[in-house]
Records
---
Amino acid sequence: MVVSGEQPTVEGDTGTSKKAAKKAAKAAEKQQKKAEHKAANPQGQAEGPEEDISEGRYGVMKMIQSSGEHQDRVYTNVKDLGVKLDGKNVWVRARLQTSRAKGKQCFAVLRQSCSTVQLLISVSEEKKVSKQMVKFTGNITKESIIDVYATVVKTASPVESCSIQQVELVGSEVWVVSAARAQLPLQIEDAARPERSDDPEALRIRVNQDTRLDNRVLDLRTPANQAIFRIEAGVCRLFRDILTKKGFVEIHTPKIISAASEGGANVFTVSYFKSSAYLAQSPQLYKQMAIAADFDKVFTVGAVFRAEDSNTHRHLTEFVGLDLEMSFTSHYHEVLFTIAGTFTDMFTQLQEQFASEIATVGQQFRVEPFKFLDPPLRLEFPQAIQMLKEAGVTLGEEDDLSTPDEKLLGRLVKAKYDTDFYILDKYPLAVRPFYTMPDPNNPKVSNSYDMFMRGEEILSGAQRIHDPDFLMERAKHHGIDVNKIAAYIESFRLGCPPHAGGGIGLERVVMLYLGLDNIRKTSMFPRDPKRVTP
Amino acid sequence: MVVSGEQPTVEGDTGTSKKAAKKAAKAAEKQQKKAEHKAANPQGQAEGPEEDISEGRYGVMKMIQSSGEHQDRVYTNVKDLGVKLDGKNVWVRARLQTSRAKGKQCFAVLRQSCSTVQLLISVSEEKKVSKQMVKFTGNITKESIIDVYATVVKTASPVESCSIQQVELVGSEVWVVSAARAQLPLQIEDAARPERSDDPEALRIRVNQDTRLDNRVLDLRTPANQAIFRIEAGVCRLFRDILTKKGFVEIHTPKIISAASEGGANVFTVSYFKSSAYLAQSPQLYKQMAIAADFDKVFTVGAVFRAEDSNTHRHLTEFVGLDLEMSFTSHYHEVLFTIAGTFTDMFTQLQEQFASEIATVGQQFRVEPFKFLDPPLRLEFPQAIQMLKEAGVTLGEEDDLSTPDEKLLGRLVKAKYDTDFYILDKYPLAVRPFYTMPDPNNPKVSNSYDMFMRGEEILSGAQRIHDPDFLMERAKHHGIDVNKIAAYIESFRLGCPPHAGGGIGLERVVMLYLGLDNIRKTSMFPRDPKRVTP
């Protein structure tokens, strides 16, 4: 029984110069070609200078084309490897994260999503592992996908460089399923390196954002990214599930629209057969029409487009909107608290269901745990003005908050109430869209609200005007061509209940929940004014 | 106690000429203005010629602006009205579907989504209901939203014209929350009329499709439409839930792309700042990149765009794609049966969870129940060719099926196997996209499949080529500029497991599951070459 606590110095690899990398690449290619040749001509083997006892136990596998071969082979997931499998033989298909052959041994790390395990290929008569096979394994290019037949072996001491620490794999077959190119545009170790300012590794190689995004397929393989996009899927699922339980109906609204309905600025134009159309900046008008069409409570998840030339950490030209709209009986706070409760439920369930993913993100990025109150904190606009004033920032009662104001306010709220999530209610009417319902007691104030996470806005919402004549009046006041929104206004002439709602940016919620610094980290293939690839 | 089995002859209304409708509208408006005046000047009441004992119990309500009024008023849903509430007083907010005042009584039908209940407003000293109030109620425009305070009363005989048949409401307060215009562009009764060819009502007024779509907010209020879009939300939810349970991760793929990657035809162009871009025809390349990025099993739900000038019953220029992609170990049938199992699970759960909605759709449209086998039927292409040949249609082994061939085949399969759902596997390679994996044993055949519902294709899928060199070769064979798909091909140079997947059109699935005849019936705001509004 081979017990090995020895760990290959994986990180040491990073320093490899480009030249050395090229050399290694060539060697690996050569070796692979040789192996491929062997796999294709197993009879030819005898011609070699040395006999290979591992013949037929390693090489490059034929392209998997669903021929029916190996159909009854059962594979074990890396995350399921543990001491209860000690001594058992398993097939594992995984990426070769690193490998290093030294004499008669090759240590490698296999990776599946966020899970890693150590693989040892060691010259052995008993296991029929030859020197050639060890060398072959050492030359497999990083990030290749391989099939390994191996014995699960309990280790004497924990393998600290891997997520599976109590066992390692001692291999007796190694097959390359899909080879990665020898020279990778970025190294996963570099892309995955912790970004803590107090870290001794702070000076080591990192990968800049454009390189990451240009090579997103590789970048997405880091444990943090594997975790981030699973959390994002979770946010989406929880948003829908929580609302579905509250009686909301999911709808789908068109992205191609005939008129730039919401003001006209920042809208992408599409050629539409012999005419042209626009990409919707939000599902606003459509979800309100769904309310007028008796769907009572609706939500929609879908692409939202903004032709805004904003090159900031928090703007995208295409993002995923989580939108909802709900009729209420007497007060828009019925809706406000439904939305806020959806957030607190979501935060609670994220902590419960994604603890390990959140921890994985935390291993690369310094993340303060997200704090929130239940029920959530609701402040009114004048309270915010007052808090800012006390902190030395003076705003008029009809001014909007600037982004720095919002950030400062977030810090003040955190200090005072110990929450990263709060609602700011009763915005000045002047700074909100034309369809926002004014406050019944103060014509300068509106029945509208924003919600914030870590001092950044993630939702904007309001009671909407459901009276068509008043809506016309407000649209005209805002200088909007009412002919362009005729179908929208007409909806309210067909009878419409009072309603309110809001729109959320999915990528912002995930970014701020995790405390990340750039929205491109939470968009799988981000789009901004300068990027439409890959 | 008032017990009333008498039903207003709701349908009789339909014959009303335009002139009469105008007259009625004017009267209603006049009456409403009067009531509004009353509501605004309640003191002025005494000046009227007759004393009104209902003073303060009816009228037009002030626009609901979240003033705090009536915040503790509890409303009862129409669907929850039943004999267990007999004798209780309730507030109900609902649409006035119809109303007819006759002397001292006004019969009305209140509607909430698919549920309807009869309302009786009857002159009564005890309930303080005056002649004026009865007249006012009779003049409220159809489709207005009203608040009613009423007693729940068990009826002597079932109210056949309503979904709530055992009780009716006897009202003592009536308030207009949101008035509909007097002249509606279509009548809900007409839009909801059963479309059975053997129906005695077949000759009565129907609403044509363009009128419906032009006035979609009204059209969507029919019980069938209320049900259809709830079923559609269910299909979407079940698709996601079933796949999530199987370990799939939801992803979001960009709709704005830099190159018309899949052939170049039928793609919409978008102006993108100083350059131009395209709208994605499918998430194909991105979901494959997610597989290369180690997400293992992914799905995505989102808008898909086709600039195809097809004006048929089953084409839209924008639809909702349910896409999935999954890595497999040795055979693409692992994926094929995962997808097929997702469908049968979905069909089973739709029947369980949406029985009442399916029945509601069936009340308007003649729908044969959807039949399927579990496990589902899988045929191979040559079997289909043979079945068609026996039915007199001769196809070559490398020909694709035309739409009429597919329909005929659907009927043959239904007759032979009694299923509305089946899989057709092993399409000719020549008729599939460049990235389709050929069959290992026959170069003219591919590892690809379509799935059909009631003889129409709802999914197209295949094993994809994961070997970059072979993919290049196949792309060149198809005359595709490999420079335009460089990032896509590069993904496979970074190591990629064998994988397969498919794309589903949501609207088609709902249309065919319900046996509807036009895809515009299952798209809330459909887009086709001639329609981008509302």
---
Amino acid sequence: MVNQNEQSGGVEWRVNLPDETSKVLTTERIWLHEFIMGFFRKIWSFIQKALKIGRNDPRKLIHCLKVGVALSFVSLFYYMRPLYEGVGGNAMWAVLTVVVVFEYTVGATLYKCVNRASGTFLAGALGVGVHWIANQSGQRFEPIILQSSVFILASAATFSRFIPSIKARFDYGALIFILTFSLVSVSGYRVEKLFELAHHRLSTIAIGTSICIIISMLICPVWAGNELHNLIKNNMEKLADSLDGCVANYFKNDANANNTKSGLGYRCVLSSKVTEESLANFARWEPAHGGFSFGHPWKEYLKVGASLRSSAYCIEALDSIINSDSKSSDILKKHFSKFCVELSSKSSAVLKELAVITNTMTKSSKIDFIVEEMNNAAQELQNAMKSLSKQPIASTVTKLGGSDAGLDIVPLVEIVPLVTVSSLLIEIAARTENIAKAVNGLADIAEFRVESGEKSKKSQNPQVIIQISQKTMETSQ
Amino acid sequence: MVNQNEQSGGVEWRVNLPDETSKVLTTERIWLHEFIMGFFRKIWSFIQKALKIGRNDPRKLIHCLKVGVALSFVSLFYYMRPLYEGVGGNAMWAVLTVVVVFEYTVGATLYKCVNRASGTFLAGALGVGVHWIANQSGQRFEPIILQSSVFILASAATFSRFIPSIKARFDYGALIFILTFSLVSVSGYRVEKLFELAHHRLSTIAIGTSICIIISMLICPVWAGNELHNLIKNNMEKLADSLDGCVANYFKNDANANNTKSGLGYRCVLSSKVTEESLANFARWEPAHGGFSFGHPWKEYLKVGASLRSSAYCIEALDSIINSDSKSSDILKKHFSKFCVELSSKSSAVLKELAVITNTMTKSSKIDFIVEEMNNAAQELQNAMKSLSKQPIASTVTKLGGSDAGLDIVPLVEIVPLVTVSSLLIEIAARTENIAKAVNGLADIAEFRVESGEKSKKSQNPQVIIQISQKTMETSQ
């Protein structure tokens, strides 16, 4: 027995021993107190983390409620007598199906439903066939035939899960195939009511899957296709912000926390490959929704994603060069600043326009024009570097910083980071053009809407002018 | 009925119609022939793909056979009468467990086994408790209490799967918890033999999991920890080869297919994050194996992996700069070639030595020395760039290419790629040092063996000399 006493404001723990003495447990008390407080502190931080997740994405909360609703629906088969008579004790399979099949996105749920149904059907049919053959070949060979068929088919199906094309589409189906085939051919040896078993299993799975599909599609559906679409769009915006942030950071010498923070968006892009691929895999199971038809070219989104990532790699290198200690000559920096900021802002303008195109699913008449502007900015930056070299570096500097006549030579070391930043920016511009090409490919195949005719005509003119002016520039050089 | 005739060497398809006329099916025949051939061609290419996978990694084939063996073992419970009497029709759960739980690596199998067992136990206990409470509160409230408990607990458990720390360790357990709790509390309403159900389920799961664990650990085990270890080691080697390949490609102007191929290894490193994380998650469930104890610091491997990836990003940028069209002045290239190749070979030597350290799990006495050499090479490359700027670029060139007196000025544009390559190489060297730090951290925490004393003493000397000589270099500048 443990007693709690209060003495002079303090709390004491006493254990009453069998010989009627009692012991004060001060150290134990402290330990217990610490333990309980630590426990509650952990739980509290856990709850806060959970609340944060719920607040950031309420759809996750809704998903949880949807799972609850689906399970409640399925358990009705048990509670309501007429339904129970129909399906019997096998309603268990319906519960099992709902739990295993219900996923966050509609696409994933459909993928699992189709795989589960077809895997079960195929394995059930094969199992019944093998069982019939085994039955015909006498009691002695029956277990051998069944056993070896389980061994061979389970091994083969397991191996098929290693093949990428099957893994992407039918991984779960192969698992269910092994499961059902083993169950049917093994339990068939005893149960004797094989057809009934197969029929019950199929009908309960049908009940489970249809409940899942209906609930996941009707109550606040989360479409994998839509998620992929938004992910790609957001990644474009993140890259644009990162690029602006990095370059602004470098040339303005403002080490603002805000700038640095907005400059880190590219990190999400670096590691988004797996998410993109699984979303694209699930999206192709989804029916038409929003602006997307069935058979929307989700694979094209993966190409866009890959080109975004290749741009992000470059921005990562740029970010680290910018954050390294090496200093650039301030005068040259000022001179180059104009061109670099121009180029990066044009690149990020292209990215933002591409985000708008992807988001609205409307071909933009502006995009060619902006890409052209970006290329011109890249050309100007290269020209600026060329013009620097027309005269020995020393005199260039004195020209630029006229008042600073004492300064004769800018050490090449001080140009190095600037040159590196410039050539990385040019490389990023080239990769941004690749992104634009990938988005154009997507727009063509997915048949994005075209903006109204007048607008597109207007935009044709400046582009032609720019192209001509660029040609004259090139010939004059 | 379909007849096959041979006439003058050709084959004809005839359909005998009910009115005893017959029709020659030449176009259909061609179509059928095409269809069958296409079908077999597809199957053939599929088989070849499968064979290639099997040849590349025979352990995958062995895994498939292991699954077959485990399933055969479990089905023995059905075929052998005494065993069958013991477990009864519930042996189905053992089959189900084996199919679902058996994974490629031991760690993944253990993770699933522990999660399945603990999830089932926890949910079973809770289910029995809730069922008892519901039973006490009268027939009217029973279904309401059961239904709402399923709703609340299923929603809560589903939500917990969104929390990263739980997702990493107990995702499968949460799924099994929902499954078992729903089954127990729903079917308990009818079956009445609740304890027996729970007992059977637990014992069959115990049988299934123990078969899986024994087979996966005894027959050619694939340890997740070992896989992670090898992945990290191989990634280091791939980066070293890529770096060597890229730089050799650039400075030797040999566009050999071999070089290009070996230069692409870094691409695997770029996208290995998810594999590394899942392997590390599984590895912590594994008992001691090979040189790894239970509780080996697998998280440190993730840090090494992250630093390897950050290096790979830089190599990606380097690769694209090298493959871009822009030309460098040949004379300067020759001048810089020495320093760049030196630096990249030192960097890749560091990477290779780190791979050896990781592989042998032995602290190397050489590594500090090689890192120092790499830093010196980086310093020399920077010095080379500094010395270039001491005099106007034009005269530097005439000095270098003495015979080429007519050439006055090297356009800065031609230095740009060279400068970019150099500063990327310097950045890569800095990141390689980070990798070395991460590996050192791993070596300290995982208590790697130390090389024999004499060797490490020998290596101390050159390092000290180098450090002194570097200091004198720095003061003399």
